[in-house]
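Researcher: I'd like a candidate sequence for this fold, 223 residues long. If you have to choose between options at a position, lean toward the conservative one.
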């Protein structure tokens, strides 16, 4: 089993990743290292919509997309109905009659899926794949749960940082657009924002897209 010091190093590295994509990729790499499995991948959840996230290689990308296509598989079940799913041989497991044989045709047999979550929300699920039948046991489940806790904290943190960064960027963009309108039409800051918001509603556009359009128009006029 992976030592406490190794998990501490892993947790520090995950929290130091620059964005969500890199965090997902590192979680998958650490899963392979910690469990000694052959492949790993992640499905993420936002607004109850599941998407494929990180993966260690194209085989996993294909397998995870197959789960989405068939709307069945251990990862999807881990997200919605179970915290942990252990599969000794996906080829003969009757729970996923469509996905199982296709996954086995990719050389995948043993599967261990765990839910990634915080107190507030489900973030997704981490899938660990082995090319051997019966590859995962109790020690692997225990290791995966520890990894999952660290991964969940890191992913939640990365999402929060990304959201804050986007919010700051949006405010800056809106401020620039308001400045353009205030100068061009001699209106107040509040009036400029009202113009942007009204145009956004009338043309079914995001407020930030309207702001960017105003800024681009100003730049073009100055050329």
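Model: Candidate sequence:
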């Amino acid at each position: 089993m992976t030592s406490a010091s190794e998990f501490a190093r892993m947790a520090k590295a995950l929290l130091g990743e620059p964005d969500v994509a890199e965090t997902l990729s590192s979680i998958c790499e650490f899963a392979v290292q910690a469990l000694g499995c052959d492949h790993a991948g992640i499905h993420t959840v936002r607004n109850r919509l599941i998407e494929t996230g990180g993966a260690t290689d194209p085989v996993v990308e294909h397998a995870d997309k197959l789960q989405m296509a068939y709307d069945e598989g251990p990862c999807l079940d881990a997200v919605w109905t179970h915290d942990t799913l252990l599969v000794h041989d996906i080829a003969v497991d009757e729970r996923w009659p469509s996905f199982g044989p296709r996954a086995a045709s990719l050389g995948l047999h043993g599967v261990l899926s765990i839910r990634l979550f915080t107190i507030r929300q489900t973030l997704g699920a981490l899938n660990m794949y082995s090319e051997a039948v019966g590859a995962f046991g109790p020690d692997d489940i225990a290791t995966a749960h520890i990894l999952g806790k660290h991964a969940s904290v890191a992913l939640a943190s990365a999402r929060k940082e990304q959201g804050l960064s986007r919010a700051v960027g949006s405010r800056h963009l809106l401020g620039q657009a308001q400045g353009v309108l205030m100068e061009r039409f001699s209106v107040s800051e509040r009036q400029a924002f009202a113009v942007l918001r009204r145009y956004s509603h009338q043309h079914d556009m995001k407020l930030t897209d309207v702001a960017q359009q105003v800024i681009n128009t100003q730049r073009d006029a100055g050329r």
